[in-house]
Amino acid sequence: MSDALHELDATDLAARLRRHEVSAREVVQAHLDRIEQINPAVNAIVTLDPEGALTAAARADERLVRGAAVPPLHGLPIAFKDTRLTRGMRTTHGSPLFADHVPDVDDLLVDRLQQAGAIRLGKTNVPEFAAGSHTFNTVFGTTRNPYDLTRSAGGSSGGAAAALAAGLQPLADGSDMGGSLRNPASFCNVVGLRPTPGRVPSPPGSDLWDTLSVPGPMGRNVSDAALLLSAMAGPDPRCPLSLETPGAAFRVPLDRDLRGLRIAWAPDLGGYAPADPEVLAVLEPQLRVLEELGCRVDTACPDLAGADETFRTLRAHSFDLALGGLLDSDPQALKPSIVWNIEQGRRLTVADLHTATTTHSRLYLGTLEFFSGYDLLLTPVSQVAPFDAELEYPGEVAGRPTDSYLDWMRSAYLISVLGVPALSVPAGFTPGGLPVGLQFIGPPRADLAVLQAGHAYESATRHGRRRPDLPTA
């Protein structure tokens, strides 16, 4: 790998910055230069503040020269997901209704990462209101997959994943309800972690009791994702579900001997999420890698009966609560799939919500029982390889037609319902050169164990080291 600054791992960059081998200004400028060269083709970063980033980098350099202690993300540039409130910088949510919206406060996560030393570059593209796992909107257009510019980069953290893969930033934040960290990581050959709910506090002002939508980290490798998690995680009294473990618990070496680990492989999640043959053709040989690392691999799956209905009910209810007012005031301003999801929510009854919440509880308890016999569950991240970027969603999965923009995301969103950590790790490429990710899933709160297993697999395979060949502007 080259020593070009935009190609270095975040952990390597952070170490070089602390050793005074490179300045924060040099790191930021290198990424600004890369953005100028590559972003026009990829369309991953949609708002950019070069002057502000260089000013913040200069302040970071001055602190280091003074001998002040530096935080873990010192000098590392990051563009935040365009659903995160950023003080003085527009936050559009990918919607024309917010195209000129400039918040006067920072999101909790934005504040945490900047306090940890990260330098704000700008914002990354999202689908409208982060709805769907393909990143396009009428404000900024479509984000392209760096491995094939005709293909989707996934979503809703698609701009974040594409920016990582293209070398536009060394770390990226995201969020995940139905796969929005994991699907784009799989599509762009990077790493995305959906943490245990509460591991990273939700921003005040959101639904503080929601366990479906969680913030989380992305990186080009597992160690980088763990580094970012260490700055994201930790309790906040304004988030009642937040876990007490401090973020520093994830700033540790991830090396672990996997011998004796009991792993379940669920290629179609018990029949609920069949995957395309080209995806399974990449993933099934990876099981041998884990066996060679000393793991015992069986075919098994937790009971997911009712998980699909539960996810869709809770999602539709949340869309009605969050966006229903916008539908009433300006129905033409929302894309049809969002209108459909809100209307689904409005048709729900109290009995529907009761069934969903009680099933949600049953699924969680059943998951705990499943993991009493297994240490990890492995599944496809996505049921399909990156699809045509001109489509809103693929028309079929494993030979079955899709009826909505949710249908192809089951292998990710069925796991969301279980309340567990899930990690997407690069697992290889289709014959056409499209990335495919393997999903490492652990028991609730076993985020570190999942990261360690993903790191061991990644070290053995090095699929994530294959970078895209991109034209420069």
UniProtKB/TrEMBL annotation:
Its EC number is 3.5.1.13. The keyword Hydrolase applies. Keywords: Hydrolase. SUPFAM superfamilies: Amidase signature (AS) enzymes. GO terms for molecular function: aryl-acylamidase activity. It comes from the Bacteria. The keyword Hydrolase applies. Residues 26-451 form the Amidase domain. InterPro entries: Amidase (IPR000120), Amidase_CS (IPR020556), Amidase_dom (IPR023631), AS_sf (IPR036928). This is Amidase. It comes from Streptomyces platensis. The gene is aam_1.
